[in-house]
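Bit of a strange request maybe. I'm writing a small parser for structure token strings and I need a real example to test against, not something I typed by hand. Could someone generate the tokens for this chain?
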Amino acid sequence: MAAVLNNFVNSFTNRLESPVRQHLKNVYGCLSLSTLSAAAGAYIHLYTELLEANLLTTLGTFGLLFALISTPDNGKNQKLRLSYLLGFAFLSGLGLGPLLHLVISINPSIVITALIGTTVVFVSFSISSLLAERGRWLYLGGTLISLLNIMVLFSILNLFLRWSLFYQAHLYIGLFLMCGFVIYDTQLIIEKYHMGSKDFILHSFDLFIDFISIFRHLLIILTQKEISKEQRKRKN
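Reply from user aminoacidic:
Good idea to test on real output. This should exercise your parser:
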């Protein structure tokens, strides 16, 4: 076991240069902080009366996102930009509150299952991307973005048609796309670093969006399966 772990670590060392590894440490450190901030936001919505998801918090989410993107990294404003990122993550977690409340009312274990599943999926696809040949998966970008745009258009159309079959397909295809974005964004971060972009805060934002999107999709899919199982039990 130790030999396998040692070979695994050496594969990262041989494939990624020391500056790139340090940059990725910063990226995943920010991602971890963002995830904790989102968890705090969800907890506050569920178990306190301090804040709840509403229109103002949604506007605040977009406001912090705009502030983060529009504030360039100059090496001196990292704390300010990190606060924007953590604020965005906090309000994003707050926005998940209503969905989490519904899921918990059906089966609280779904949340834990979805979180573990999200972590396993995210880590697995991230490692496969890091161990792959440099730039191998960058060609996925155009395909993923095109499919995402098509899904957005059909989602708007489905607001009027209300096809349940399309909604189910949208969920599973969306989950598949987010997994693809984990691979693509991970390699894109490395390429951006080689091109001179060392903004690890904004790079971690991309991965946070991937993580939270996978978690949301898994929550909905697992909840639907739980509801279907309960309905079958009642029929029997």
